[in-house]
Amino acid sequence: MSKQSRVKMKQKKKQKKKKIEINDLPRPERIRLAEAKMTKIIDHFLYVIELHANNSFVVFSPLLASQIPRSYAANAFNAFQRSMLQIEIVRLCAIWDGIDLDKENIPTVVELIDDAEIIEMLAEEERGRHMFGRADAYADERASLALTGLEHAIKSARTVLSSTRLNAIMNIRDKHLAHSLETTRREKNGPVQPMKHGDETKLLNASIPIVEQLYCWVNGTSFSFENSQEIDQRNAEALWTGCKFVDLR
After folding, report:
1. Which of 85, 145, 169, 195 is the most buried (most CB within 10 A)?
2. Angle 51-214-38 (CA atoms, 0-180°, nearest 5)?
3. How many Å apart are CA 188 and CA 192, to the nearest integer?
4. Which residues contact residue 69 at a Cβ distance below 8 angstroms, ignoring those fewer than 6 apart?
5. Are 240 and 64 in contact (CB under 8 A)?
């Protein structure tokens, strides 16, 4: 194959790999994609909540650790604790990963809907859901709530995205969990604050109202994680309080 042919092939591959820009998409398509991604994000986030409930016993409680003396078994338990916490961090970071139409995360949804006309379209959809059998005033109220709810969710998401806490957690994910890097891209761009104990819990708690609001006003259906949190906590308690370590070496 000639050099010219190889160059042409490379150019064709680059053209195929070129990603579609969000701003190039029609607004109805952006709404459709946001709805589909929010449905998936709910599922992903429910898994993070489930992991967090289990870690409240495995990692953040002496319930299990207090049963294990200095021993060979302690080494295995320490590895187990680390793996449980690390997968929670990895999955939580995935919810806040970079903007990409192939990804199911909050930043991509925010980028899809952060447009004045799209927000107005979503508010009109909410108005239309409540026009039948109700006074127009109630439909107007729902549309107004959609406008303010979307604006608040977008603003809250951008606050998280610009926070030193998220930057620290993502840096740990990139450097030690998803990869094994000497220096991350973030560190090359400037100092990165170290991740602190409990940062993952604060990020989780900050994410809950954002996901709930986005799902409510993008998908037109309310959803609360509170019940899931209670169920997951009871399930985790039922398992881990029944675990007893005996005859450890």
Report:
1. 169
2. 60
3. 9
4. 248
5. yes
- Cα 42 to Cα 59: distance, rounded to the nearest angstrom: 24
- List Cβ<8 Å contacts ≥24 apart for 82-85: 84/51, 84/54, 84/55, 84/58, 84/59, 85/55, 85/59, 85/200
Residue 107, C-beta contacts closer than 8 angstroms, at least 6 positions apart? 96, 97, 98, 99, 157, 161
With a cut of 70, list the residues of the chain below it in pLDDT. Answer: 1-19, 133-135
In sign, the C-alpha dihedral spanning 182, 184, 185, 188 is negative
Angle at which helices 136-161 and 199-219 cross, to 10°: 150
Which sign does the torsion angle of CA 59, 62, 68, 69 carry? positive
CA separation for the pair 210, 107 (Å, rounded): 11
d(CA 83, CA 77): 10
Other Cβ atoms less than 10 A from the Cβ of 93: the count is 22
The reported pTM is 0.90
Helix (H) or strand (E) holding 143: helix 136-161
